[in-house]
Amino acid sequence: MIKDNPKELIPKFFNSTANSYDSIVNWTTFGKDSYWKNKILEQLSTEKSVLDLACGTGILTKQIAEKIPHAKITGVDVTKNYLEKAKEKLKSYQKISFVNQDAENLNLGKKFDCITASYLPKYCTPDVLVRKCLEHINEGGKIILHDFTYPKNKSIQKFWNFYFKGLYLAGFFMPNWKQVFVDLPHLIRTTNWVKDYEDAMMDYGLKIRTQNLTCGTSSIIVGTKIS
Ligand SMILES: C[S@@+](CC[C@H](N)C(=O)[O-])C[C@H]1O[C@@H](n2cnc3c(N)ncnc32)[C@H](O)[C@@H]1O
């Protein structure tokens, strides 16, 4: 069963799923993961440095490197297996480096023009993560947070609930993913991450813009540190 603190889910979800993550995230989201990551990439243009928090196996990190090849990119993740996978996949990218740290205790000793985080917000305490991002972002820089959301529309909720029941059954044939398919829907249903991060960002004086995507199943918040 799900624990009260989403942070306790991280080892359960990620310690043995790194090898299959890239294909699972693609097919379980019907390819929407790429669409959502493109929405993140649309925010980037002339940044010289980007920090990709919870970079996982480096899917977004690689796309950032290809969109802005001049930029120095740092990928951070708390799960060693995921980070190792990212390092192995992206070893030919000279401008990407990786660091094994917890985003909530981040201490890189430098600042970036942009910070991205895809599928991280729901696991973290908003005030803590936003404060850590602010310590690592340059004036005028953007903090881009993306994650799943529970749709508000009742018909779409029905489809969403039905779909996760299917994934729950699929979990019996995919032992490494079973725990994810059991606990993830509850976490997404109960998290209030969009409102909580909007509030935290506004408290810290950031200018914010939120996009709800794909019938409310995913959202992106862009917070700009006004210089
Ligand atoms: C679902 S994966 C997403 C990976 C990648 N961002 C992507 O979109 O493909 C979530 C990642 O968040 C990482 N993570 C969760 N909490 C974290 C934290 N507090 N600090 C750093 N990484 C964290 C996990 O280790 C995992 O690799």
What order do the helices and strands come in, and which of them pair?
Blueprint (H helix, E strand, L loop, with lengths): L8 H6 L6 H8 L3 H10 L7 E5 L5 H9 L4 E6 L2 H10 L6 E5 L11 E7 L7 H10 L1 E12 L5 H17 L4 H16 L2 H11 L3 E7 L4 E7 L3
Parallel strand pairs: 1-2, 1-4, 2-3, 4-5
Antiparallel strand pairs: 5-7, 6-7
Helix pairs in contact: 7-8
Describe the structure.
This protein is of the alpha/beta class. It has a single domain (6-224), classed as Rossmann fold, CATH 3.40.50.150. The protein is built from 9 helices and 7 strands; from the N terminus they run αααβαβαββαβαααββ. It has helices at residues 9-14, 21-28, 32-41, 59-67, 80-89, 126-135, 154-170, 175-190, 193-203; strands spanning 49-53, 72-77, 96-100, 112-118, 137-148, 207-213, 218-224. The chain has a 7-stranded mixed β-sheet, with helices on both faces. Strand 6 and strand 7 form a beta hairpin. The radius of gyration is 17 Å and the shape is globular. The N and C termini lie far apart (45 Å). The relative contact order is 0.15. Bound molecules: S-adenosylmethionine (SAM). Residues 10, 14, 25, 54-56, 59-60, 76-79, 82, 102-104, 118-120, 123-124 line the site of S-adenosylmethionine (SAM).
